[in-house]
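Hi support team,

I submitted a single chain yesterday and got back a structure, but I'm not sure I'm reading the token output correctly. Could someone confirm the output below corresponds to the sequence I sent? I've pasted both exactly as they appear in my results page.

Thanks,
R.
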Amino acid sequence: MNELVNYSEKLMQDASEKEWIERAKENPRWFQPLYDKYFSQIFKFLFKRHADEIITAEICSEVFYKALIKISTYKDKGHPFSSWLYKIALNESNQVFRKKKYQRVVPLDLLKSDNLFDEFPLEDSKDQLELLKKAIQTLKPEELDLIELRFFNELSFKDVALVINTTENNAKVKCYRILDKLRIKMNVK
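Hi R., thanks for writing in. Yes, this is the structure output for that exact sequence:
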């Protein structure tokens, strides 16, 4: 029996992600490598949004449970598997915000993200960070989601589009409109 388990674990190590996905559709045991690969990434994403370890753990558990249950519906359309998980995580996270009716946390790391900071000709001072924080807090939840996915999680526009159910071009347009909105609120050109 141990030989069979060891052989199974060896197969999982040798298989590619696409193979794991296809095999997980037939046997839930093959979902384990996907879980192992993406758990910390999804947990960090959720923790930045909720800043509460218990709530984050509950949501993360629900994300992977739903992914396991719905893996048979997953179709590889040129997007990484992680984008599909982010989509589930974003939906679950937003559902918790709606149910609990509490404010979303704007992570300080997001404000200090080099990718986001590069979009604004600001110096790294407390006053300017505070200005950016206030401007970001005025965004609608879906606008903040887009900024967070693009700049904090560094998803490509193609992957952001998948997560927010739009086209790649529309994701770009929305993102740049939000950045313009932030520049106006900050009086920055």
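A quick pointer for reading it: The chain has eleven helices and no strands. Let us know if anything else looks off.

Best,
Support desk
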